[in-house]
Amino acid sequence: MINIAVLGYGTVGSGVVEVIRTNHETINKRAGEEIKIKYVLDLRDFPGDPVEEVLVHDFEQIVNDPEVDIVVEVMGGTGAAYNFAKRALEAGKSVCTSNKALVAKYGPELMEIAKEKEINFLFEASCGGGIPIIRAVNSSLTADVIDEVTGILNGTTNYMLDKMNTEGADFNTVLKEAQEKGYAEADPTADVEGQDACRKIAILSSLAYGRFLDFEKVYTEGITKITPEDMEYAREMGRNIKLLGTSKRVGEDSFYALVAPFLVGKNNPLHSVNGVFNSIFVHGNMLGDAMFYGSGAGKLPTASAVVADVVEASRHLHDTIPVNWSNKEMTLMDPDSVEGRFFVRVKDTSLDEVDKAFGKVDAVIEPDALPEEFGFITGLMTQGEYKERVKALGDNVLGMIRVKD
Ligand code: HSE
């Protein structure tokens, strides 16, 4: 029998208990032993809930119990979650977590302890919800040099952008809906400001390129500045606005990484990834393109990935699964030297002025609903060049969104 302890009985924690209770037979068969939830830790009480039988309020009871083999950390944050995960590993208990903030900040240190103790620190649910992307990058795409990872990595914002586009829904109403559905973080600022996607692209890039990408160094923009007018232009152009996390290898030891909203073109498969779904595009030098798609957030999809880690940890109770993640930090290019095309909205100016600033622009968009302004897409240029050129249009610029074809 394998005893596990679940830290946190919130959305994901209660999902973990539900997944194990619902699919216990299949899960036990796959793990090779019976998985038993010995403890659930939470500060709160849950009168009437069957979890009461195993509910404890003191982590010491768990860490000091030699019968506990695996600790599931689904509390979130980097305070107690870090402390508990570290102490559990030091006590020889494998840790499975959905906590991207924990992995992005302390992953290298926690993996090191796991290695010393010949156990595992696993984090499949930290990226892409229920999509098995961590295992795919770490254990399946091992024949390739990966040179790009680009994805819709946040379910909350993808759900919001979709509703704002298709139903004209208002930002705050649709954010509340995403919270009610259990998609958003405890503090949804991390979702809407792009920090959640930033941590996920940092984790995926660290695994894909075998270098540590410090999330704090990734240029990050969220969706809070996206307006109904931007949506109108997107519709007019047949594009969709998506919050993308992207990273590329541009030289032997040179990379760039970025999180920002993009106007994604119809021919890009990320264009039609809607609702709470996530999708991650990976390019390998031998494989070419691969896409991974599935439920990106929510109680059961996330819990499914956590429990899959519990099964994996059970199969490797006394050996560490190799992880392609070195402590050597990735050298990131200055975002201003990264090339792209830019969609720009302007008012009180003319196409002549735009051409003077940017040379001949690729597309001019004049939605009927917005007679006071127009938009255009620049040719290919670095972000630094864009910033220089756009200065000529001064206060006439209403906004800019990056373009992804
Ligand atoms: N808040 C996250 C999201 C949860 O919306 O994607 C899953 O990591």
From TrEMBL:
GO biological process: methionine biosynthetic process; threonine biosynthetic process
Residues involved in NADP(+) binding: 7-14
Annotated EC: 1.1.1.3
Enzymatic reactions: L-homoserine + NADP(+) = L-aspartate 4-semialdehyde + NADPH + H(+)
Residues where L-homoserine binds: 185
Catalytic residues as annotated in Swiss-Prot or TrEMBL: 200 (proton donor)
Residue ranges of domain Aspartate/homoserine dehydrogenase NAD-binding in the record: 8-124
Homoserine dehydrogenase catalytic domain residues: 132-311
Highest rank taxon of the organism: Bacteria
Class in the EC hierarchy, top level: oxidoreductase
Molecular function per GO: homoserine dehydrogenase activity; NADP binding
Residues that coordinate or bind NADPH: 100
InterPro entries: Asp/hSer_DH_NAD-bd, HDH, HDH_cat, HDH_CS, NAD(P)-bd_dom_sf
Annotated pathway: Amino-acid biosynthesis; L-threonine biosynthesis; L-threonine from L-aspartate: step 3/5; Amino-acid biosynthesis; L-methionine biosynthesis via de novo pathway; L-homoserine from L-aspartate: step 3/3
Keywords: Amino-acid biosynthesis, Methionine biosynthesis, NADP, Oxidoreductase, Sodium, Threonine biosynthesis
Family recorded in the similarity comment: Belongs to the homoserine dehydrogenase family.
PANTHER family per record: HOMOSERINE DEHYDROGENASE
Protein name: Homoserine dehydrogenase
Source species of the chain: Blautia segnis
